[in-house]
Amino acid sequence: MMHMTFYWGKKVTLLIDSWKTDSWTSYSLSLLACLLVAAFYQFLENRRLRLKLISAPKPSPTQQIEAPLLQSRFAGDGAKLGVKFAGAILFGVNAAIGYLLMLAVMSFNGGVFVAIVVGLAIGYLFFRNEGEDISFVVDSSCACA
User: Fold this and answer.
1) Is residue 137, in this structure, part of any structural domain at all?
2) Neighbour tally for 6: CB within 10 Å
3) What is the pTM of this model?
4) Count of domains forming the chain
5) Mean pLDDT across the chain
C-alpha cells in the first residue's frame, strides 16, 4: 500500500516496482542515487542557462536606448537552429529529470525527500551559484528550477 504521509524507514519503492529497498545498504545506495541525480539536475540547468546566455544576441547600446522592449529575440547569431535544438534537448532532459525527482519525493519517504533537497542544494552551491546575472529572466515550467 502506498503511503500518503511522510514516513521514515528503510523499506521504500522508488519510481518502479523493481526498485525496492529492504536493507540499509540498498536504502543508502538509493538515497545516494537520489542525491546525485538531484545535483545533476542543477548541473544540467546551469548548462542550459549558459547556452541561453551565450546564444542570446548582444544588442548595441543604441538599440537598447532607442527601443529596449522591441528588440528581436531572433536577430543575429542567436537564431542558429543548432543552438536552439540543443537548448530544447537540454530543457526536455532537465524537465524529465525534474519530474522523476518529484515522483521520487511522492514516495513520501522522509529520507528520499531529504536526499533530494540536499542534492538540489549541493548542486545549486556548486553549479548555479557562480555569478548569475540577476537581470536574466528564465522561463521554466518546472517548479524546482
Assistant:
1) no
2) 13
3) 0.75
4) 1
5) 82
